[in-house]
Amino acid sequence: MARKKSAKRKLPLIYQPVGFVFGWAGGALAGYAFRTAWKALRHEDDAPDALDRDRGWGEVILAAAVQGALFAAARSAADRTGALAIERHTGVWPAKEKGGRD
Known about the structure:
Layout: H1 2-42, H2 57-90
Helix pairs in contact: 1-2
Keywords: Membrane, Transmembrane, Transmembrane helix
Transmembrane segments: 12-34
Protein name: Membrane protein
């Protein structure tokens, strides 16, 4: 039983590099997915930025919403994948019962 408690205390240290790698990969995939989605939606290579003078509110808000949704989904998928990998290798879930980022 004492071993399991010490394993739980050390998991955040083990999970950090795993979470970083999965987070980085998820961010890269989300960026690619956003560029691909924007090209499919608007047939443009560049999505509008909030400071683009020539773009309207609708375009800027649409781009931000699509980008935010894709990045949130990628972040959740990366976190979940990393947690499952840690649990599979250690037998312990790397977060508190009702823990999380939010």
